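Worked problem 6 (solution included).
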Amino acid sequence: MRTCVLVLVGVLVMSQAAMAEIPPPLPGQGGQSPFDRFAGTGTVKQNATHVGGGNLNGLGWYVGSTSAIYVRHADAKDEFGNSVDYMYYRETWTTARDLGTLMVAAPGYIGNQSYGGASGELWVQREQGGEFTKLESFRFSVDPFTMDFFAVNQKNIYGVEIRVTDGTEPGYHQVGAIEFFTDSIENFANVAFGKDAFYSPGSKQRGSVTDGTYSASNDSFYGIAGQKEQYVGVDFGGDFLLKGLLINTCMYTGYEWENFDVQYRLGEYEDDSEGWIPWGRATADRTVGDMYWVSFGDGVEASQVRLYGSAAGGNDPAGKIINQIWAFGAPVPEPMTMTLLALGGLALLRRRT
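Solution. The predicted structure is:
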C-alpha cells in the first residue's frame, strides 16, 4: 500500500567543515507550523468511514492509493443517523476562533483511477451551540494530490463544518485532508513553485521537487548507497524571506527520509559545499501522519534551501525519497526598491506638513 507523507521544513545548509555536527532536532509529531493552525484542537464529528490510518484534520494525511478519506454514498449519515448525500467534517470549540484560511487537499488515486474536482461547502457556527449556516461553496482541484487554500476571514466563530457535496468517484465522497489557519491567505504562496531544483551528484531523480504536486508516482529524489553526502534543494534565483517549508516524502511506507538536515544559504558561492547554515534535523514520525512542518520563526533570508544527509552524520538518505519542497515566504525587495519606498514615504510626510 502506498502512503503519502507531507513534510514541511525550514532549510539551511552548513559548510562542509561543520557537516559532522548534528543540528538540533526540529519538533517532531508533525513538526511546528509557521502558521497558526488549529484543526484537531476542538470537538470533532465526522461521517468518514475510512481514514487511511490518519485523520481528516491536518495532523495525519494519507492521500495515497486506497487511503483517501471517504464515505460511500449509501453509508453517508449525519450526526443524528439520518441519511445524507455528503461527507462532513465538523469541529467546534468552547471559545471563539478566527478562521483566516481553509485548506483542503484533493484526494489521490485508488487503483488506476484518479479522483478530484469534487464540490464542497463551508458552514460555520457563529454562536456557541447554535445552528450552522452555509458560508460559501467551493470546488477542489481536478488534479489529484494538490492542496487548495481558500480565503475565509471569519472572526469569532465557534464551529466549522466542511461538506463534500458530490462524489469524486461514483459511489463515494472523498477528500484528502482539511486544515484551518488563523493566518490570512496571503501567507500561503508557494514561492518554490517553478523554481530550479538541484540535487547532489549521483542521486537519482525524475521530474522536479518544485512542480506543485505531491503524487507518490512522481518521485523526484532518491538517495542511493555509497555516496558520502546527498542533498536536494531549491534555488530561488533571488533573495527571499522564508517563513517555512513543506516537505513531502510521499512514497511507499518505509521509503520516507524522515531525518534530513534543514539548511539554507544567502548569496552566490563557487563551491557547492560553502555557505550553508544549519537550521535543524527533522524528526518526522511516520506513525503520526504525513505532514511535517518546520517554522523559520520570524523568517530567514535565503536564496537557496536544501535537505542534507550523510553516512557520517547518521542520516544517510540511501533508499529514501523526497517528492516535494514547498516554501512559504516573500521576495526580499531590491535595495533600489527600498530606497524608492523610503522616498515615497518621505514625500507623503512633506505633503502633510
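Discussion: The first helix runs from residue 335 to 352.
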